[in-house]
Amino acid sequence: MHSITLVVNGVVREATVPARTLLSDCLRHHLGLTGTHVGCEHGVCGCCTVLLDGEPVRSCLTLAVTADGHEITTVEGLAGPDGEMSPVQRGFNECHGLQCGFCTPGFLCTATALLRDNPDPTDEEIVEGVAGNLCRCTGYQNILKAVRRAGELIREEA
Amino acid sequence: MKPPPFDYHAPRDLAEALAVLAGVGERGKVLAGGQSLIPLLNMRLAVPEHLVDINRLAELDTLSVASDGVTVGALARHSRVERSTQAAAVQPLLRKALRLVAHPVIRNRGTIVGSLVHADPAAEMPAALTLLGGSVRLARDGGEVRDVPAADFFTGPLESALRPGELAVSAFFPALPPRSGTAFHELARRHGDFALAGVAAAVTLDESGATTSAKVACIGVGSTPVVLDVTGAEPDEVAHAVRGAIEPDADIHASARYRSHLAGVLATRAIDEANGEARRALDHTGR
Ligand SMILES: Cc1cc2nc3c(=O)[nH]c(=O)nc-3n(C[C@H](O)[C@H](O)[C@H](O)COP(=O)(O)OP(=O)(O)OC[C@H]3O[C@@H](n4cnc5c(N)ncnc54)[C@H](O)[C@@H]3O)c2cc1C
Ligand code: FES
Ligand code: FES
Predict the structure, then answer these.
(1) What is this structure's pTM?
(2) B interface residues, A as partner, C-beta within 8 Å
(3) Where is coiled-coil annotated (chain A) (predicted)?
(4) Could you tell me which of A117, A111, A115, A79 has the C-alpha nearest to residue A97?
């Protein structure tokens, strides 16, 4: 067993995990943060995407022990301190960017980093940015609208 | 899906990593970005007894660009090298190849050296390294270091010249001579997937505009990248030459005939684009 310390959504969290524990399972089972979803567990679907030191990564392809000492942001950490939704979350809300919601945490984390680095992406850049996330419900059109709208909100509020 | 149990080692520096690797020998595997190894563990296709995590070795997180080429350390992630304008200026094929590797989020973790050691027959980085005549630097405990040329490094599907106990510490992608151009074309079922087939090309011209070298490296159509010299071949002969040199396998994604056809088409396009880039470089530098 390994004792690890992660800063998750700004809070220092400790966990004792076997080395083979995936970051996704550590977040869900050890830390009770079930917002990070697990679909394929081999890197294809993207719904487990979280931010590791600010960069989106697959939590199903990262060992929790490798992340020891690092900062993680999950979907639970995107909203503001009083629970007000982030621009990306509002974009998804306004544009009906989800149906069942299974893929949504991954899209939100991916889009959050995408728009932070590039608040005014072209349609092509948006498609390239979220192409690694699969959605079985929406047909993607509203997700692309939501990311575009989130970019507008970020630029308006900047 | 859960990885099988293993003993985890988290060395803090290179010397410690090499000592651990020497101790575990063929029972151990290096963990870099994990973007190929962890899927294999999750699916229980790999069952190493020991995992040596090199993610804390800051000394391997290097990217050095000189006029003769680009050297990437074992912890240089795809995304970092892709973003480097200096690296793209010295060796443009690097960025072109990196943009075809998986998705941006995978590239945030995956390393170039990991891609090379993993040696997937459909992977882009082994083709780029082989086409450019680059090399991989391998180190082992006791200070012994060897540089293996790309042509000898890829020995089979998912097989490389890396021996048990060795760590790949860096890879070198040489620059091309002046008046050169490159291109990378591939076709995948879905954006970001491994390609059904792909072709990297590099063309060099002399000062009069005559072609002094034209080469392609094909992926997904053999157990290792297939490099072919097509200097002097007419555009329609390129496809023919490629199809004659490869023996692709059929799988659920594509028939052997389709892959062969595809490789020919992609080679023609890649040579054409590389040639165009070389001509622009020639015009730019003046004759
Ligand atoms: C959904 C998905 C799509 C993908 N699509 C593509 C694609 O289109 N093209 C492509 O090329 N790749 C693709 N990949 C693979 C990805 O590029 C990997 O990141 C890369 O192949 C391996 O790099 P890594 O650093 O993650 O290596 P790891 O997964 O950590 O290691 C891979 C192998 O190399 C060994 N290794 C790694 N580093 C060293 C070292 N320094 N010394 C000795 N041994 C070492 C490991 O022991 C292991 O056997 C894809 C992956 C996923 C999940
Ligand atoms: S669960 Fe991680 S990518 Fe699908
Ligand atoms: S909303 Fe159902 S999978 Fe995307």
Answers:
(1) 0.96
(2) 1-8, 10, 31, 34-35, 38-39, 41-43, 51, 53, 55, 79, 102-106, 108-109, 191-192
(3) none
(4) A111
